[in-house]
């Protein structure tokens, strides 16, 4: 039935991009909120993920179990439900915060779990010989972790981490459901004001594409600054 | 927890069934489209390979929460009046097809080239080569990541609540609006999603281990 009606349709919709483009300042403000939300969540999520990965690989059995349980729960529940639990649920228990803070907390908790799995794979890929050599020259466990294990591990999984954080930026659109004023929320507002849904969402889709290119460029720049070995020696680890 | 009666739980369970139904629809639709995408990007001429890779980058670079309203409002603009379920299924199928197409392309290309060359030596034509030699091996390689991606599909159906389709997350929201106990309700909803997704995650890991052992 769907195919029959498709055969009889013509595009009798007049595109009008000027209406949503008149809201360009709001769109830019929304894009800026999305970027700050994503970058803040990326930073704290990375820290949380690295700590969890260390707990999972080098911690005691109980720490590893707790980290493992946290990762499984986060990875098997939708981000939307996690955001609702943080925003509505925790505020009903007395901890009331604004939408931006709740969105950041939910995104940090979410991306921390995924980061932890990626960094754990990186840590487990470091050859045992590196650890033994570090022990031979008298480095403590924390020094080994900080100087011998983590930098090469993170460099190895850097492409996977970059992809994960770009996905996080796309997933931040979910925070529009708790009325954080980011790009998708602005788009929802504009389309309900102007009734130009298709044009608004097309513009916002292009904006997200441009923002993901921007984020990939930022991460590439960060890699050039943070991992000088590949630049100087020209060899991967 | 005295505020949750049997009717509430029944409503949540109906939402769960709709989540499973929408996930299956998205998997089947996205799987068919993704299969075409994978074949087009592994075996097509250069022009079609470029088009397919542009399609994949476009869909992967757009949030699902922008694709869903685009399908929900854009299809009536094209003249098709669709219910939220059909719009959500179509948008999710397109979204899934980009990711599954990319996964399956990688799996097709990871079948050793020698297999294709040997099949050519045996004078098998292209479609026989793909159907009898390449695809069976590619399917075996592709099963763990595909099962792992099904977890993502189930989680992403929660976003269909944004266009008014009543699945599990929306059912939780509706019950929350009437009982005002968000923490308990959303923890129950999260637990139901966990019950759906965790077995798939475990299965995917088990399949991956089995595949590697089989190739040792």
Element pattern of chain A in H and E: HHHHHHHHHHHH
The CATH homology group name of chain B: MetI-like
Question: What is the residue-averaged pLDDT of chain B?
Answer: 91
Report the CATH superfamily of chain A: MetI-like
The global form of chain B is: globular
CATH topology grouping of chain B? MetI-like fold
Number of helices of chain A: 12
Averaged pLDDT of chain A, please?
Answer: 90
Termini gap of chain A: 58 Å
Global outline of chain A: globular
Radius of gyration of chain B: 21 Å
**What is the number of domains of chain A?**
1
Helix content of chain A: over 70%
List keywords for this structure.
heterodimer, A: 237 residues, mainly alpha, MetI-like fold, 0% strand, B: 216 residues, 82% helix, globular
Give your account of this protein's structure.
The complex is a heterodimer of chains A (237) and B (216). Chain A is mainly α. Chain A has helices at 2-7, 18-21, 24-58, 61-75, 79-92, 99-124, 128-136, 141-156, 158-171, 183-194, 197-226, 228-233. Chain A has twelve helices and no strands. The longest helix of chain A is centred in the N-terminal third of the chain and has 35 residues, at 24-58. Mean pLDDT of chain A is 90; it is low at 4-8. The mean pLDDT of chain B is 91. Helix content of chain B is 82%, strand content 0%. Chain B has eight helices and no strands. Chain B has one domain (6-214): MetI-like (MetI-like fold, Orthogonal Bundle). By secondary structure, chain B is mainly alpha-helical. The interface between A and B is large, with 46 and 44 residues.
């Amino acid at each position: 039935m769907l195919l029959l009606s498709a055969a009889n349709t013509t595009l009798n919709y007049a595109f009008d991009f000027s209406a949503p483009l008149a809201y360009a300042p709001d769109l830019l403000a929304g894009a800026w909120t999305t970027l700050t939300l994503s970058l803040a969540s990326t930073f704290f999520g990375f820290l949380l993920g690295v700590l969890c990965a260390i707990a999972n690989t080098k911690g005691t059995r109980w720490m590893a179990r707790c980290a493992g349980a946290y990762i499984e729960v986060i990875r098997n529940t939708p981000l939307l439900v996690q955001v609702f639990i943080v925003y509505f649920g925790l505020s009903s228990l007395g901890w009331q915060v604004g939408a931006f803070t709740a969105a950041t907390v939910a995104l940090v908790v979410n991306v921390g779990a995924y980061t932890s799995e990626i960094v754990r794979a990186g840590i487990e890929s470091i050859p045992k010989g590196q650890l033994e050599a570090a022990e031979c020259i008298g480095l403590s466990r924390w020094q080994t972790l900080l100087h011998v294990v983590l930098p090469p591990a993170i460099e190895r999984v850097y492409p996977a981490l970059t992809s994960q954080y770009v996905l996080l930026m796309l997933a931040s659109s979910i925070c529009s459901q708790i009325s954080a004023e980011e790009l998708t929320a602005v788009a929802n507002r504009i389309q309900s004001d102007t009734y130009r849904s298709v044009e608004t969402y097309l513009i916002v889709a292009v904006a997200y594409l441009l923002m993901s290119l921007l984020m990939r460029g930022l991460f590439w720049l960060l890699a050039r600054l943070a991992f000088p070995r590949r630049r100087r020696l020209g060899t991967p680890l | 927890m005295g505020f949750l009666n049997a009717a509430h739980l029944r409503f949540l369970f109906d939402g769960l069934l709709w989540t499973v139904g929408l996930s299956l629809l998205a998997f089947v639709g996205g799987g068919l489209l993704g299969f075409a995408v994978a074949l087009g990007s592994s075996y097509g001429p250069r022009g079609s390979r470029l088009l397919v890779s542009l399609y994949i980058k476009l869909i992967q670079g757009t949030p699902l929460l922008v694709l869903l309203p685009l399908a929900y409002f854009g299809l009536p603009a094209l003249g098709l009046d669709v219910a939220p379920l059909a719009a959500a299924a179509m948008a999710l199928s397109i979204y899934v097809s980009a990711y599954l197409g990319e996964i399956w392309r990688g799996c097709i290309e990871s079948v050793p080239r020698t297999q294709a060359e040997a099949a050519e030596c045996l004078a098998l034509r292209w479609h026989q080569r793909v159907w009898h030699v390449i695809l069976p091996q590619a399917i075996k390689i592709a099963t763990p990541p595909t099962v792992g991606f099904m977890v993502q599909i189930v989680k992403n159906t929660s976003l269909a609540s944004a266009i008014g389709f009543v699945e599990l997350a929306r059912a939780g929201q509706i019950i929350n609006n009437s009982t005002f106990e968000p923490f308990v309700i959303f923890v129950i909803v999260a637990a139901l999603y966990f019950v759906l997704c965790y077995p798939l995650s475990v299965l995917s890991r088990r399949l991956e281990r089995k595949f590697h052992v089989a190739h040792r």
